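Appendix B, example 12.
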Amino acid sequence: METTAHEPLESDPATTPLLELNGVGPLRAERLASLGVRTVKDLLCTAPRRVDVWPRTLSVAELLAAPPPQACVVAGRVLNWRLSRFAGRSSLRCRIADGTGELELLFFNQPWLRHKLVKDQALEVLGKFSAAGAFVVSRASVGGAALPRAGELVATYPSAEGLSANFIRELVLRALEQHGERLSEPLPLEELERRGLEPLPRAVRGVHAPRSLEEYERARRRVALEPLIAAQRRLAASRAAARAAGARALVISDARFETLLSSLPFTLTQGQLALARELRAELARPIPMRRLLQGDVGSGKTVVGALACAIAAAGGAQAAFVAPTELLAEQHHAGLRPLLGRVGVRCALLTGGTPARERREVLAALERGELELVIGTHALMQERVGFARLALAVIDEQHRFGVAQREALLDKGVGVHGLLMTATPIPRSLALTVYGDLDVSLLREKPPGRARVSTHWVRDVTRSFEAQLEERLERGEQLYWVVPRIESSRGEGSAGEEAQAALGAEERFARIAARRWSRFGVELVHGRIEREERAARLERFRSGAARILVATTVIEVGVDVPAASAIVIEHAERLGLAQLHQLRGRVGRGATPSVCYLLGKPSARARLELLERSDDGFEIAEADLAERGMGDLTGLRQAGDNREGFEDPTLDVELVLLARELVREPLRATPTARLS
């Protein structure tokens, strides 16, 4: 029997494919699947990013007299328009009048509108003033359906490549109409009532078609809980499978462990020592270790990772130490090879830049078991890289690797132990901690003798600012000058911003090298410079032959120069909290009082002021979590099964904890709850 588009289907939304919905063909179904949305239930549990009360329409005179900071509606008749194109983008400026005045509207990347705008045509738009003073349109009624009425609740849905927000909204409402009544509640109703949660069928209706903001907020919490519970179940199953597989027990004697500790040319902090003992005990178990080491910048995580590798070697096995960039891998190799060589650990480097002959030699030595440790980049995860007896994988800056990449390395042995490290606990790491997918260790204490770093947000580069830097250089101290991009931009802009030029690292280097500071020696480092030349330039800076290093964010991790006491970060508004904190960690590694200068726009005020008052990476991570949301909690985005753009930006830790509790507690069966 055929079903019309308006009749409910006799099927379970949890198993009904999206192809059952009008407007979804194979291509759109594939794009939605790549975002983790495969069934009608997945779609119904895709909550709007936000729900707003539609504003009233203002006259042009009201708008210009007191420009509101939020979006507003204005209407008028078209006077004229003009289209401009630049670097593959476009801007369309349209002037309207409503009898009280005239206003110029700005549309970004909508050149097709020029065919719809005609003189004296009525036009109603939603928009807001940008920092540059332009009224940027986000939604318009041009020869189509009218905009919502003042006071009406309007949901804003996420979008993705090939899937507009309007399409997602229409598809969700279509699914709600056709399948909403067949959605069931999988949790016990008494459990929901005890926790103040709506049943899922009612919550889905309330989140997509709310009658009030209060109803939306109540519904959102229940809808957000559904994918969290599913993720908890996947993580629990994954962990159980890993434990069942077993692992090689890396057992070493007390005497051998003390020898490893005494071979170090420095004394470990109490935190490092406690963690080293914890890792030794865990590696000795026949269960695969899955541990996340969160340590603030400069807390000495690398040494702990090196000790874990030494324990693996002493236990007769091999270890792999992976870094996200060639520069960091090279720095680790340069520092760890002599350190571990003291206790007889044979070590090699393998990156994408390793010469072919050297690569063949390293691969052969690994397969024969002649190397106990290999340090490298993503190159270690390639299929042709084999090990004789890999038992430990240490993954530095783990958030830069996808779950699939991590698993590819762990699969190169049987029951390989995994130690994941991160300098600043970014939101995903914080979320994994709450999830309990990994055992977590914290390393807060920094080695003694390190100076505190003061941070200052610099609004304008003045002569006095430059004089402060020059004084440090005259005293023999060293300076990092970081620019986010290699090349300068010319007239680039994004929606809501006027086009602006920005210096790149190469031009900044040229300007510094051409001025009086050239006498201090200036070097340039970025990702396009060949490996040997980059290493030579870094060595000149490290040795003090050059006191100024201009660089991109390639120096974010792995560069340790104790004499560097100042860092300038240009365009700080373009970088996230975690990245800025990492860059700041390049200074303060010696005894000299150090300083970090952030050159950023007022648009990043909250972030820059937080960095000014706090140097605690854990506090910064929590602020990053609050600002950006939980992100991709299960890591599926990086594994290719991704809900990027579809995760709930208002998700809170309380819901994650609740999902974990609900999965861990055996729940009694419940009668099916449906929409009434």
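The chain has a mean pLDDT of 84. The chain has four domains: 18-51+157-236, 62-147, 246-443, 453-489+502-618.
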